[in-house]
Amino acid sequence: VYNAAPTWGVSVGDALGVADPVLTQHLHQHQGQTFSFLGIRVSSPLSLVVNGKRPPGSALAPPRLALSNPSVPP
């Protein structure tokens, strides 16, 4: 679940409702082995229903601002 707070999560056995999933086929090769699996991307934990309830607002990770300017003159 993208954008989930580090303190929030689901447990084995939880029932999940996913409103707008994005299904992606992943295919990776590493050291002669091929790994293939499906991934379901959910952009926000707030779009889920967990055990019949929406997650609290605290399940959403806070925004972070990262700045970079590699071409600053000396």
Automatic annotation (TrEMBL):
Q: Report the Gene3D superfamilies cross-referenced here.
A: 2.40.50.550
Q: Which residues form the Tetratricopeptide repeat protein 5 OB fold domain?
A: 1-61
Reading the lineage from the top rank, the first entry is Eukaryota
InterPro entries named among the record's database cross-references: TTC5_OB, TTC5_OB_sf
Q: Where is this region: Disordered?
A: 54-74
Instruction: Output this protein's name.
Output: TTC5 protein
Species name for this entry? Irena cyanogastra (Philippine fairy-bluebird)
